[in-house]
Write a sequence for this structure.
């Protein structure tokens, strides 16, 4: 690890502890100038590619999943921390599948599953956009499915 102060390429780890979302915080000391600095290490993951409905491909972006969840939970009693946790869990589940190419359908179904457990209104909002409800009948059939599951 290169020292940010003098540029020397060797340092020793003084302290190491877990940080946010699976990263590791390390306190280091330069072996030349003896100044201390902090580094954060994260596990490098292979990029996932999302195959969209039109066949185009795009790198997976958790922030897009989070935005969709936030939009559907707007003015609902769902804490921001829960929304962020849902997006993180979806990303982790997808990473654990070890598939580098995933469909938007899979991502959408995972989001709906999380929202159904968190807030039914947010779930219906997301489903109405995701499944592109064309009329009131398709909307009602989704609501009836939701009611029958209770």
């Amino acid at each position: 690890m290169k020292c940010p102060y003098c540029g020397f390429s060797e340092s020793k780890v003084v302290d190491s502890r877990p940080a946010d979302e699976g990263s590791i915080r390390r306190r280091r000391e330069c072996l030349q100038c003896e100044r201390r600095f902090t580094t954060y290490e994260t596990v490098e993951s292979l990029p996932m590619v999302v195959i969209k409905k039109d066949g185009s491909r795009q790198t997976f972006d958790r922030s897009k999943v989070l935005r969709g969840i936030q939009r559907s939970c707007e003015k609902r009693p769902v804490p921001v921390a829960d929304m962020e946790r849902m997006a993180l869990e979806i990303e982790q589940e997808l990473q654990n599948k070890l598939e580098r190419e995933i469909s938007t359908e899979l991502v959408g179904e995972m989001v709906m599953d999380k929202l159904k457990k968190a807030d039914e209104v947010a779930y219906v909002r997301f489903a109405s956009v995701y499944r592109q409800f064309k009329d009131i009948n398709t909307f009602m059939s989704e609501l009836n499915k939701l009611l029958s599951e209770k």
Summary: The chain is about 45% helix and 20% strand. The first strand starts at residue 11 and ends at 18. The chain has two domains: 11-41, 49-149.
